[in-house]
Amino acid sequence: MNKPENYGSKAVPLDVFIKVVSEGIREHNERIGRASRVCGGKRSFQQAFAESYATAPITKATPEQRRLWLLAAEAIRADKTTGEFKLEGNRFWAEELTALRGQQLVVRFDPQALQGSVFVYRLDGTFVCEAPCLAAAGFADKGAAQSHNRARKAWIRAQKDMEKAQNRMSIAELQDIYAPDPDAAEETPMEAKVVRPFRPAAATSGNAAIAIQPDEEEDDYLVRAMEMERSERPGLRLVDPDEY
């Protein structure tokens, strides 16, 4: 309830955070004058620990135990031809994997170092070998791979949702989008307000030859045609062809 206004807006890099915390722990353990029973008010925690560590029997984990405790595990299948396998885009292989081609295996690895060596086991827990990275072509750590996969899955979900929305549209809805509206008013054809009388060509045979008598001048014919058009359409303004 009482977080600062910029809470969560900034974060230091992980390596800086680890360095600062490590320095704080070291300063805490090396501080002189601790009042605990083992320090006696004179020594530090580090001095008291070093003294007891030098004389007490120490039980240490074997490399095999550390691999089982500290590393992540993932089931994977070896290639049918070479025995190699891929982990987050990086290729791994060792000579011992040739005898396990096409088999299901368990790989143990450091999630923060996916381009280093990994440890290969059979499904029954038998250790096989340590496989080096042949081609560092993928992600360097598990976090980057998971972030990429989350973004990719979110994009795929968005594409599927859009496809479902399009498929839910009925034929009637598509008709409403693409078909014209029957209730929409039809456009009234435009009527010309200025008309130039058509000047017919001379005809020499048939009925067309009667349209213009040989003894009738062409200009007289045009004048009579304009007067007839004006009598039938009073609002029409005729253009004298001699003006053009």
From TrEMBL:
Q: What superkingdom heads the lineage?
A: Bacteria
Q: Which GO terms describe its biological process?
A: DNA integration; DNA transposition
Q: What residues does the Transposase-like Mu C-terminal domain cover?
A: 67-130
Q: Per the database record, which ranges form the Bacteriophage Mu transposase domain?
A: 3-54
**GO molecular function annotation:** DNA binding; transposase activity
Q: What is this protein called?
A: Mu-like prophage FluMu transposase A
Organism equals Komagataeibacter europaeus NBRC 3261
Source lineage: Bacteria, Pseudomonadati, Pseudomonadota, Alphaproteobacteria, Acetobacterales
